Amino acid sequence: MTNQFPGNVLSSVNTAQNFLNNSSNPLTQSQQESFKSDGFLVPATFSADQNGLPYTQVPSYKQSQLHRNIITWFVPQFGTVKMYVNPTNISYAHKKLINKDRTKGGYTLQYWGEELTTINITGTTGSSGIEGINALYEIYRAEQYAFDAVGLTLAGNNASADIANNLVNGVGGALGNSINQLFGGSGNSPTAAAGGAGILGGILGLDSPNNNLSVQNIPSLAQLAFTVEMYYGGWVYRGFFDSMTVTERADNFLLEYQMVFMGTQRRGYRVNYFPWTRSAKDGPSAYASPQSFSGNIQTGQ
User: Fold this and answer.
1) How many whole angstroms separate alpha carbon 95 and alpha carbon 109?
2) What integer pLDDT is reported at residue 135 of this predicted model?
3) Which end of the chain is more exposed for a tag (fewer CB within 10 A), N or C?
4) How far apart are CA 169 and CA 171, in angstroms?
5) Which residue, 82, 83, 116, is CA-closest to 257?
6) Element (H, E) at 240
7) Beta strands per DSSP E along 45-180
8) Any residues with CB less than 8 A from the CB of 298 and at least 6 apart, and which?
9) Cα three-residue angle 137-140-145, rounded to 5 degrees
């Protein structure tokens, strides 16, 4: 199947992306090209004005290019993962959150915006079999795998904190008592010991004798779970997985799956991608309607 994207939109986004890459992006040229090929270059989002809705701003007779359109997932802490085969069906469920109350004077309506988008993804892993299910299942619960490294870091930090605290409480306490006696104090003073521990703690990078400054802002399971992104056909959905169901069939030995992804944010803009499509902004389709793409359209499998 072939996919076409607006050449003028891509060229303008490419120009901005190249500028950012050359000025502040540490990626190499080959990494940048791989990044773009994974679908992370998102077409610009058209905005509404007083002359019409955003779809009216999409130009006709766009330049086309041959591109394989396959779902790519961005998984926090791991990077991009391409699906082995596209799903059989993807449904996007949109709903507005409006409360309706019946009163003696009629209905009262309260508008609370829009519900989260529910994306229902169903399909089969095809010839990848159970290993394809393994890949999808690990994407589904990737936050658990990502948190393993965080847990190891916390364990190592706790061990180092114990050593630092023992050092502070021991050596710092002795230092404080020595300073107390030097300036006329008598015996061991808890206040002097705490003061010496505080001085030594500041030297060792502790905000107090018992709190280590390192590894304070760590990613939580919720943060890792809520920042998964799905790239497909110009749309980028950020959100989280709600459920996953796997069905193993005996009649054709296929493994079917169903994944429910809740979208908290959508970026990008999706446009026509078949050679025979026509512009939707000029009314009903007819032979005289402008085509979505201009010139000779290459097709491939």
Assistant:
1) 15
2) 93
3) C
4) 6
5) 83
6) strand 235-248
7) 72-75, 79-82, 89-93, 96-103, 106-114, 117-124
8) 2, 64, 66
9) 90
